[in-house]
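Homework help board

Subject: predicted structure for assignment chain

Our instructor gave us this sequence and asked us to write out the predicted structure in token form, then describe one feature. I got the tokens but I'm not sure how to describe them. Can anyone check?
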Amino acid sequence: MDTLTIAITIISLVLGLAIGFGLAKYLEKKNASKIIQRAKKSAAGILKEAKQEAEGIKKDKILQAKEKFIELKSEHEKVILSRDKKIADAEKRVRDKESQVSSELARNKNLNKDLEEKIADYNHRNDVLEKKQEEVDKLHSSKVQQLEVISGLSAEDARAQLVESLKDTAKADAMGLIQDTIEEAKLTAQQEAKKIIVNTIQRIGTEEAIDNCVSVFNLESDDVKGRIIGREGRNIRAIEAATGVEIIVDDTPEAIILSCFDSVRREVARLSLHKLVTDGRIHPARIEEVVKKTSKQIEEEIIEVGKRTVIDLGIHGLHPELIRIVGRMKYRSSYGQNLLQHSREVAKLCGVMAAELGLNAKMAKRAGLLHDIGKVPDAETEVPHAILGMQWAEKYGEKPEVCNAIGAHHDEIEMTSLLSPIVQVCDAISGARPGARRQVLDSYIQRLKDLEDIAFGFGGVKKAYAIQAGRELRVIVESEKVSDEKASNLSFEISQKIQTDMTYPGQVKITVIRETRAVNIAK
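My token output:
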């Protein structure tokens, strides 16, 4: 292909491209004008529709505004009508008040008029009375003068003689009347007192509550005795060491005897034996575990007994510590008489006697129940039990009348209320019944307590138990503080102390027990 042909071809292509570009521009311009025309028509339609819609909205708003105006207008009219009604009611009340005030004024005027008339009448009558009184005084003076002339005595002398004669007569009559009244009061008071005491005793028919120092533990069979004793007596020794109670195993069929002066220890031993026999596992480790659990159970039972007692007697608001002390009375005795039963009996007697005398029966019961709480402590104190009980009652918020009745029932302090002699008399009634108390038992228990207290006075002593009716004192010491040599010396020192400080029948055997334990836990 030659150069000319190529040039022609190129020129043709360029001309074709130019013609095509121009034609495309023409067509694009034509389409753009059509699109603009259509847009203008559409805009005109939209504007027309917008105007029509605006006209509709305008009409709706105008209608809504008119309706709102009518509604506000009606509400305003209602408010105006209500206000007018209130104003009218107020005006009516004012008119009624004015008419009422007018009638009151008229009535007051009439009353003032009547009062003035009465005052005038009173003044007139007063004047008349004054004139008559003057006439009476003049007549009285003339009569007195006439009597003085006739009798030869002045009015003052005659009055003095009359007064003296009347005074002597009245004094003699009064002395005779007073003497008769005193004699009658004494006779009546003695009769009433006897009547009240007899009625009170008859209404309280309680049984005699005497504590013993032994308890019988019944067994299902004699085979159990051997299990309780254990190999070479190790079980029975473990029970005695843990509880401080002497266990007597003799020929009595299906029974063993628990001997101890302390009721709490004896009850712990009895319940522990019951649990061990029921469970069947009886060995030293199990015995110690059961005794510890039983001791906690006894403490809970003490609180429960105290609560039941105050509920039965109708006593309310007693301090929890006083309730616990009342519960501990169950395991205390006074001259062989159970302290809780004695206190319940005294409380009932006090309630009946106070009711007969017209006093506060509930407060009398309260004082009667608490009168012996000073006997509950284990350790002996130099303070009398009545004073100690009064101090406890004051500490735990009891009323002064109750505190005085507790402290004065053995005449340690002066009685300041009527409850005090009532508690004293009822305490004597409860303790004076035949068979209610045993003097020998109380001195015996005191001797056993003194034996234990002497042992506790030495260092290193962990536990001390007086057993075999006071013929043996078992002392358990701490192995860390007391060696074997010192244990022997301690036994001798305790025996010398007992020999020097106490009076007792027969001999007292002092056994010092020192036990070493090594305890480890396998994990």
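Reply (TA_rk): Your tokens look well-formed. For the description, you could write something like this. The chain has a mean pLDDT of 81. That's the kind of observation they're looking for.
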